[in-house]
Amino acid sequence: MAGPQAYPLNSLEQTEDLKAFERRLMEYVASLGPSTGRCRIILIVVSVCTATGAWGWLLDPRTSQSLWNHPFFTLSCIVLVGLFLAGIHKRVVAPSIIAQRCRTVLADYNMSCDDTGKLILKPRPANT
Fold it and tell me: Membrane-spanning residues where (predicted)?
């Protein structure tokens, strides 16, 4: 098996590899966008429903009797807990997690990336 020095890449090949990596990273982050947007909307709607139901539940003088007197609030709470158990909170922040992990790896190569996956080349550190 040959080591990494057996087939050195020239500058053009390195540039093409970086461009291909950047394209693929941007495609992947962009593909997460629609599902992330849907999950955010679902989470916002269910949270607003839960808050609205909680407001009505707290204002009701029969609050201590039972949650079954407030089925809207009860159902909203159950759905909200179910969404969190299903991992909706991970889906909402997935693109930023991917970008942060890429930044961590790319830092070793004096590079970074923005939230869309576009590479940012940093200047080389001065040799001392």
Answer: 41-58, 70-88
